[in-house]
What does this fold into?
Amino acid sequence: MKRYLITMIAVLIVPASTLLALDGNEVLSRVEDATSPAATMHAVERMTVVGAGGARELRTVEVFQKEPGSYLVRFLEPADIRGVAVLVIPDGNSDRIYLYLPASRRERRIAGHVRNDNFLGTDLSYQDIAERHYSDDYRVVSLREAPDSYTLSLEQKSADVAYTRVVMKVDRKTYLPLETELYKEGQVVKRLVTEKIASFDSHPTTAVMTVESVEKGSYTRLEAEEVHYNEELADDTFSVRTLRRFR
It folds into this structure.
């Protein structure tokens, strides 16, 4: 999920129709391939955080991604949160997640028991950012087909993951998720909706997405302003030391 929530990048070059029917696992595999079209990605995104009462806050974030599974999300605007960053470093089955606060010039590692907390007033949790492929934590239990889409139903493999069930509607042409519902105890708690698909560097890309916290009545809208693939990124881009050097 991390690749779909904070990077919003997806591409898959396949015919819109195929002679062979796909099963649910094959569709999910194509979705996961579609969300990682290149070895590296660098994007600038506009973020609009809308509270339950309608209060709005505009932010700008910079996102870096490098396979396999390294991510850096840094706030550029407004000034009071400039430099605040979340860093994800792959570490076996349990990624290391750090939150950096420039005011204190210190980073802290996010403990397991708070990974499901939302960060900085957004509708994204630390776990949402760190989540790897859905197939790591969920099994496909059903697949429905429509002329223009697939709908996958997934169930958790263990109680350690954030959501008990995931229902995902997938574009049949690009294999981009169009709408994803995340469940806890039988209730939808979060909904991700793709509002616009655009092309960056010739790659179909989820350009605008809304993340809605159903119970809270709040949502966060992410809009990609620029996306670059296969940029050369320094090895230490995804390091705690780099977090401290930001100005």
